[in-house]
Fold each of these.
Amino acid sequence: MSVSFQNLGRSFGTGANTHPVLRNVSFDVEAGEIVALLGPSGCGKSTLLRAVAGLDAPSTGAVTIAGRAVSGIDARCAVAFQEPRLLPWKSLAGNVAIGVPAAADAGRRRHVVANLLNLVGLSKFSGHRPREVSGGMAQRASLARALARNPGVLLLDEPFGALDALTRITMQDLLLDVHAAEPTTILLVTHDVDEALQLADRIILLGSDGSPEPGATIVRTVNVPGARPRDRASTELAELRSSLLSSLGVSGH
């Protein structure tokens, strides 16, 4: 499903204590596209995701999914967070089953759970509790749970940020495999420029544009070249990485 941000702004607090976080954010995400949101901490990346999911309402502007405005918690979306947030007393299969729409009968529920566990490589661990598997495996289960409702839009908020470097790369590759099999629209919040370059079709950079008006806005949009999976050693991506880091105020060397 397509997503559209239309002059979205978000402020917290009231009166003299008002704190604008986002200002005049407008961009479109095509159905099936992967878009990464980059920017310094506190610039409103997660706030944008919450607005899409209907977990938070914009102060100004609007968000639409497939042309229909988001109003309240939106069943067309699913969210996966930095921590797996699995229920410790349930098996991995039981946790994935939580994501299956309540209207599904028992047979359909078992079928969806089995397919998703197979998709994320956890079929042999379906009966394990979260404490009995690694962090990467728990995060796979969290991703499967988010996919269980067959969302039109998958919202990923730093989903691999708590993982070690090697597991993180494995999870990035897994996400691309999942997207190839289930090409849903994905909005990804990340602080990792390399991750954005590997996964995204486009990168939206949020930050200050030098305006006297407070609040972050879009300062740069980057179309990432090359088909996925991309060569992590690509010279073209290395140059783009350096450019993005410079835009973030960090040396690319």
Note: Helices lie at 45-53, 92-98, 106-119, 135-147, 165-181, 193-199, 235-247.
Amino acid sequence: MSRASSQHHPVAVRRKALGWSQDDLSARAGVPRSSVSAIEAGRLTPSVTAALAVAQALECSVEELFDPGGKTLAGGALWAWKPRMDSGRYWEAEVGGRKWLYPVETLSGSTWAHDGIWRDEVLHERSDWDVARTLVLAGCDPAAGLLAAEYAAASGFRLLAFTRGGGAALDLLKQGVVHVAALHRSTEEKPQRNSETVREKLGGGYRLLRSADWQEGIALPPGDTTQSVTACARHVRQWAMREPGSAARECLDDLLGKPQAARRLMLSHQAVVEAVRGGWAEAGVCVRLCAEDAGLRFLPVRKESLDLCFPAAMERDPRLQALIRLLRSRAHRRLIDELPGYDASRTGELATV
């Protein structure tokens, strides 16, 4: 794309209408300036998370900024989100009465075989799995693999649990490409934050199913001797930061007193842990389970409520009913209670937004 035509990219048009520089958009979206430049020049197709972050910063929908036609394959099949490659594997599921295709990702604990492959926009089916027997969830619970395994064993349905921050998960729910979105903004001090966030982003007509309560805090290298959260906020210079819109990023911004810019973003609790364990970050915000499983020190900051949000109209769907039964079962609640930092005392409770 030429420099002249790049000025007409919807991202560039919207950014300039707001009077922002590329640096301004970079800071607000938490996306590197080089990526903003490449997106506007047509040299880069952003990831789902980056596209959502840019759209949120510019107060637009993803569809307004990026080519909606890129979701459709020959024959009318629809991608839930645009694949990053020209060929690969995919899963299928029915959401909202429509069949969607999901590019295969590494899912926590997943052993699901792909349903087909695509090459040059041509689908090659390999599975006769009933698309109406798959439940699609977006969220950042590191124990989602355990949930998927239990769910399959108890119900015979399949659970695809895609790793996304709370803000990105709600956006996917709003777009109608997932059944369930997980978020964990409610705390002991602000117990209604999950409901308020759903109402603000999606409106009414939704249900919240409590998955667990858990501890979120700061992961530190094993040999670190920092004794308090306050000391971490004061002395740590290199944080492993989550993407804007995630509860972990919100928690970190609260600790530091203001939003922070980041050159590189971690898209999961596990990615934060790997950054700290690998030594390129001094600390990061994540849930206790990830920190302890990685052998890191953990300083608790707050207790949060992890809720699963779904449309109230879908509550009678057999896939949702199977999920509710599982979360309310004694065996599942006992398993959740045994995970570091998790509390199942309210697991299975339902609330209306």
Note: The first strand starts at residue 78 and ends at 79.
Amino acid sequence: MAQRRDFVRPGTLLGLGAAALGLTALAVSARARQAERDNPPTGRLIEVEGVQVHYAEVGEGEPLVLLHGNGSMLQDFMSSGFVKAAAKRYRVIAFDRPGYGYSERPRSTIWTPAAQAELLRSALHRIGVSRALVLGHSWGASVAIAMALEHPEMVRGLILESGYYYGSVRVDVVMMSGPAVPLVGDILRYTVSPPVARLLWPAMIRKLFSPAPVAATFGGVPSEMAIRPAQLRASAAESAMMIPDALAVQSRYRELSMPVAIIAGTGDKMVDLDGQAVRLHRALPSSSLHVVEDCGHMVHHTAPREVMAAVDTVAQAA
């Protein structure tokens, strides 16, 4: 008698796989909504050119605009010891850049540093700021530079912290760009990417701060907000743009006529000190270079006094 063999049809397997992905997407969406309920907006929401922009403001005096890095949000700055010190002398304005926190990032726009700078410039005009000191951290430094290049009349001085200014070979950038790929990326960020990001979060934060320990002030940054599908897409898109943007703009740095302070940590594992900060300082002879020993990428948390000193240096020079 012939032995009977049971098998599962390919169509059935596809159906089960699709159902599993669908259930995972529902769970991811529910967790993202819960993160937003647990972490409501801490600042003000305004509409700028049809885009919702979220910002927080503290202190009085000359405006000091803060632009956070890739994957972060305004709480990164607002929870740091730096803002507490800066608010004693400056009107500190921290933005959620497009796609982060509670600022929207419409897919109809390619959100280059220049596009983000234009949106945030308009937002500043909406809240009565026509001229300001601008501090950009990491990817936010690229947005700060774009604002200074395209609207020099608005940027009184630049403070660039842990920025990436010159194109280089970066394998990690390719790996982090996956969730930005159309269709495939949409599937990833609603299924695989959030749980993977949740697992990798502690190690990633240690790398950002190393060789210094993770600052207690960073506890004010809600990790669940950072791994929502929409924010993962924004982060992946900026990873993909990082090298091309640096290559496109690096020949224009000498156009920066305002005072510039460059801040970097000697142990930064995200950007190379000599290849980025020191090289930019050489290209801008009138800039000031502030190198913090035994400090990683998150200087405003680890060494807020040094960042404050750089801001004051620029303010006085301006």
Note: Strands lie at 44-48, 51-58, 62-67, 90-95, 132-137, 155-161, 260-265, 288-292.
Amino acid sequence: MAAPVSKIVLTDRFETIFFELKEHYADAVFHRIETDDFLIEHAREAVDRASLTSDREKVIVLAANRFTPIAQNKLLKIIEEPPSKTHFILMTPSKSGLLATIRSRLPIENRIVAKEEEKSGVDLERFDLSRLFDLLRTHRRIDAKRAAALVENISKEAMRSGNYRLDEELLETFSQSVRLLDMGSPPNFVLARLGLKLLERKK
């Protein structure tokens, strides 16, 4: 079996990837440090674990949503010149939070699973006043953030459906709906306005 390889793994499924690694490198000794924010004390712990001698391959897994710059700088030297048979695997959701000096020293493996696009739940094939009323009733307590996501999904689905005349005015209504929500307009008002415009443009 090939020896472990130091690398950066982009993922938000820390537990899943960790057990995959353990299974793949079954003969190696694993140490894991997992936290939301990887701080200087976590970096010191990683350095201490790396300095422990072992006859077997050793994998130190560092998993965090965010790595602070000071902690990364603390790791830099040992990642660059690790002790014999010692390998580092950094797991994080985005490489943008990693320093260029870290990124340049480790290969990056993208294990982000694309999330399935949410559906609006609106029957745009048979959209009418009754379904608009149901939409408003169902979402009468919706907040602005969720309303913006709903508007975006309705807009995409309407454009894909082929059931609406996609003129400039309708496209502008889609954009305006999001802007109105950003400016504090009541979500139900915005959804009603969008729904009426879709009814006007239904083929």
Note: The chain has two domains: 7-110, 129-200.
